[in-house]
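Reply to dn_fold:

You asked what the input looked like. This is it:
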Amino acid sequence: MKYLAIILAIATCNSGQNTSKLEPVYAPSVSVQTDSLVPAEYANGHIVPVKLSDEDWKKQLTEMEYYVLRQEGTERAFSGDLWDHHAHGVYACAGCGLPLFSSDTKFDSGTGWPSFWKPITEDCIADKSDTSHGMDREEVECARCGGHQGHVFSDGPPPTGLRYCINAVSLNFVPQ
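and this is what came back:
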């Protein structure tokens, strides 16, 4: 049933936006297996990676999306449209559409960025060490396209104690 919600979220995301922007990002050769309800971004139990050239990413993304997702930038606190967002749905990667977080795990961290205490699945995100700006942090990337999402910290609420602090421009919200 969880996969059905993800499939519906992706379908809703595609139908409500300019599909000329999203079509090149989705892996068209991978189809949804309706008998097992496996989302299109999975093949043989693994996320199908999206690889685009730098030039294609620049065509696909806005200037700010490119800065954050591809150059590992950070938007200003309280500047994104999703930090104080409370609707029910799924937050998907703005680069490739992979569902990353559920509104059920979103909380107000007071930081000015959307914050979540866990991703939809552990395999939809990738963590890597980030020692930029004189800090030792764990960067969060989309496991499908490698787009920078934000960072994860160990000062979040129960039950995980984690705070995924995510750039709003890195996400698209899909209502449910």
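The chain has one domain: 52-175.
Hope that clears it up.
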